Every structure is written in structure tokens, then in C-alpha cells.
Amino acid sequence: MSDDRHPEAGQTPAPRGIVLVTGATGYVGGRLLTALEERGERVRCLARRPEVLRPRVASTTEIVAGDITDPGALTAALEGVHSAFYLVHAMDARGDFARRDREAARRFGAAAKDAGVQRIIYLGGLGRGPGLSEHLASRQETGRVLAESGVATIELRASIIIGSGSLSFEMVRALVERLPVMITPRWVSTRTQPIAIEDVISYLLAALDAPKGVTGVFEIGGSDAVTYGAIMREYARQRGLRRWMIPVPLLTPRLSSLWLRLVTPLHATVGRALIDGVRNETIVGDDRARRVLDVQPLGFAEAIARALRNEDRAFAETRWCDAFGDRPSRATRTYRPRIVDSRVTEVACDPARAFEPIRRLGGETGWYYGNVLWRIRGALDLLVGGPGLRRGRRDPRVLRTGDTLDFWRVEAFEPPHLLRLSAEMRLPGRAWLQFEVEPTAAGARIRQTAIFDPLGLAGLLYWYALYPLHRLIFSGMLRGIAAAAACPVGPTQAVAPE
Questions:
Q1: C-alpha 140, offset from chain centre
Q2: In the CATH scheme, what is the code of domain 335-495?
């Protein structure tokens, strides 16, 4: 994803050794990986779930299974590496995350030194002075630990990243879309310097290309310093929404995180971590990054506009909806905020066996739970002009991409790991149903994910009115799939999307 405003980001660099990317399944890491592949770099990724990453990477990209806590995996991943991107940190509020991050960085730095790595590039967080949140302080400590390893280190410190799918942008989007009147806590007045995801990638590539001897901390941000409230107002302006903000300075960070939990897609621990950090100003204090790395960043209004324009394309690059299509009649509509319901269960059998019931879904087999309810939904769909369940499926056992399956269409089929269905029934929004099977030490893990892009208020009312029924059906369907595989079953649980 080279940035057309920075031609140098898309040019093929001079030949160098292997470039290692950690965190390649993350938001920034995935986009960086694409940019490196487009430049023709020799790329290697260290991934805990290589089977998830493998379908997303070019055939020339190497994948080493493991993580930064595994000495053997680190040794294999760092062999022959010239430069390494360190894009991992513990974004949760449970346990001693600062200690985990510190130890992981120390282990990675030592292994990189032993392997003869020439440069480490780390993406951390902006903020200075006393009173930093635990997460910001930990991210900056991670940068110091990497620099102390003896490997030349470039630490980029960024504020919130604006781009479709980024954690901060999705929080802003959900708040503005869902709340015509917002009770705003004190942190809404905190100043920040948001940066577009395109500019983050440009800075990371520029750090990779920087001359030998360039090291240290580089503060990066967009061209504007604004408050979080200004970001929300600008988002509302671009969306044509009228929103009112009522300041209530007594709202504590904990109450704010609970408030976010009610109205945004964030789960509680991430919400607390995010709110804990936004109380600190995150403003660029010097222009060394612009001078040395030669990137001219966007302003926050243009960053928001680009995120909105590229929303569907950017979402298509993530695991949930890669290669999703849309009917031309819907292509100009705006769907937000996205809702994801993800559930997992573990079974004591191999992935191929666990996947067998999934490949037989629909048609005469049915949906493994609540088939009467599915038939009622199909009948209602026929009444309003949809396809209902009458299409069935082409073959009871064989699926291929593009097949119709009742009122769904197969968008991705990668046995024995992935089946993704796009809804073609009539509903106020867009919907997908995805099944993923991955190996575990004891057998396999089945992940079932329902994804919904509501269209306006009608879409939100549709989802929340039917949520109790959806919850019943989705939970029962996952249990039925596991039972149909004839595998001993572990507990089923709802999970936050990765």
C-alpha cells in the first residue's frame, strides 16, 4: 500500500538483507507488510498463528512460527535479518503487562544483537513528562530497552492513528455515529496530534531506508494538534451529522471505560487502557522526524476523509472480510459502525475432521441448530423479495467460491481452515458469517464470527432487537458443528475479535 503522496515509499530500495516484521497480523503490521512486499523487500514474519497469516502474504514472504517469548523461534526468525520491525505490545489491562513487555523487548534485543541485526525499528507512543499512563510509560520503556540492546534503534512515537479499522478511529466513529447527544468527560479536551495510517507506514519505510547512524527517538504526528472533541466534531461534519457534546468533568477514567463499553465495539480491558492513555497530551515536541525522515504528513481532516473513502478497501485487508465484494446498488452507501460477534470452541480432533460439518452447512443438512427458525427467516425473506432458502446449495458436500448457499453466497473457501459467507437476504445492512478452524495442541479450535455493517438507525435497531435470538442461534450452531464432527468438545465462549 504505497502512498502516492510519497513516491519514495513505493520505490524499490537498494538490495539489503532480510527484513523481519513482528506483529504482522496487527493493524499497522499488516499494512506495513503489504508495503514491504510491494517494494520487493525480502520479508520474513514471526507469527504465533502462521496458518492465519499465510493466506495474506506474498509467496516470497517467509513465516516463522512462534513469538518473541520463544528463544528457538527468535533465533530462526532473526537469522540473516538486516532490519527488524518491532510492532508488538500488550494492549490489555490484566496482569503485569509492563513486565511482560519489558522482558519481551529485552529478549528480542539480545537475540537481535546475537544475530547481527543492523537496525531495530519500533513504533511506540507519544507523551512526555510526569503522570504518563501505565500503558504509555510501558511503551516508552520498551523503546529504551530495545535501544539498550546495543542494536541501532529507531523509535517512532505516534499519537492516535486515523484509518479505517484502527482502534482509536473506530472508537471515535462509534461514539459519533451512535450518540446524537454525548456526555463528554474531561479527556475530550485533551490535545493530541493524530496521524493518518498512510503517514505511519511512510515513516516506518523511511526509518528502514535511513542512512546508517540515524538512531534515537522520532516523534511523529499529523500536521494538526487538536483535541479529541475536535476530532469527533470533524468526523460528524464530514458525515453530515448533528451532534451535541455536554462536558461532565467528573467522569472518571473507569466510568469512561464503562461508558465506552456500552456504546462502542471495544471490550472492557482495551477500553480502560485507551482511556487511561488519552488523559495525557500526545503532541509532537520537535520536528526531527520531518527533517531527517522527510515525510510531510496529512492534516487530521484529510486523514478522516481518506479513512472514510477507503473504509471498505481497508476493511477488506483485515482477516474478517478480506476480498469482500458488494453489489453495485449498495456500493455508494455508507455502513457503520461495524458489529462483530465472535465465538470459539475447542474440540479434540484434527482440523480436517472439525471442518467437515462446516463444509456441509445449509441445503438439506441445515444449520445444526434452530432449523425451524432458519426456515421462518427464509420465509420472511421471500415475502419481502429476497431469495429465502429456496436456492439450497449446488452440492451437498462440495463447495467452491461463488456458490450460493441458501440465502448466502460463498466468498472464501479454504478447506480445512476457512469458510466465509456473504448474506444475500434482505436486511438493513451487510452481513457475513465466517468459520475458521485452526490447530491446537489438543486438537482444533473452531471460531465462528458474525459480522454486520448496519445501514443507519434501522440497521442498529435490527441487530439489537434480534440480538437475543442471534445469540441463541449462533451459540447453538457452534455446539452443533462440534457435535456433528463427533469430537469431544471443550467450553464454548464469546470472544473479542483479534
A1: 22
A2: 3.30.530.20
